[in-house]
Amino acid sequence: MTTFRKRRQVGPEDIVWSRLLVLQSKRLLLGCALRRVRRTGARADRRWAVRLRADANRAEDAYRASQATYGSTRPSAYWVAVCRRMIDQGEASAARLKADVPGLSAADRFEKATDLQMFEELIDQWRASVNRGMP
């Protein structure tokens, strides 16, 4: 007689967990690549390390996004992850704003500079909250 095991439902925490495992794997590979670059200095090894660094950064972004989307709101680690995600997205937005400034008129440049300064202060406040551990 054949018995069937009941399949466990995949939940949101499994998505977060799997992305964390991918992130850890990418970081381990990156560490290996960096040690190899230090040992050999070969151009191919450097290219490999650069590619793995980009992979690790994407994996970290995916992990933070999944933690912010699917993570439990109870532990403080969730709020730290959400705040870090906001910081990353805020810094990217600030960089885009800075890139737009040179082509503007003087009045528009001044207005954008003040908006950018306020936005950067907000990002600094988020960063300070993360450093305190989001009590």
Word description of this protein:
Helix content is 81%, strand content 0%. The chain has helices spanning 12-40, 43-70, 76-100, 106-132. The mean pLDDT is 83.
Report the average pLDDT across residues. Answer: 83
Find the structural class using helix and strand composition. mainly alpha
Question: Over the alpha carbons, how many angstroms does the gyration radius reach?
Answer: 21 Å
Helix content: over 70%
Strand content: under 5%
Distance between the termini: 56 Å
Q: Main sheet, how many strands, which sense, barrel?
A: none
Helix and strand sequence? HHHH
Number of strands: 0
Individual helix count: 4
Low-confidence stretches: none
Number of domains: 2
Spatial shape: flat
Q: What is the secondary structure topology, with strand pairs?
A:
Blueprint lengths: L11 H29 L2 H28 L5 H25 L5 H27 L3
Short description:
Helices cover 81% and strands 0% of the residues. It has helices at residues 12-40, 43-70, 76-100, 106-132. The radius of gyration is 21 Å and the shape is flat.
What descriptive keywords fit this protein?
4 helices; 2 domains; mainly alpha; 135 residues
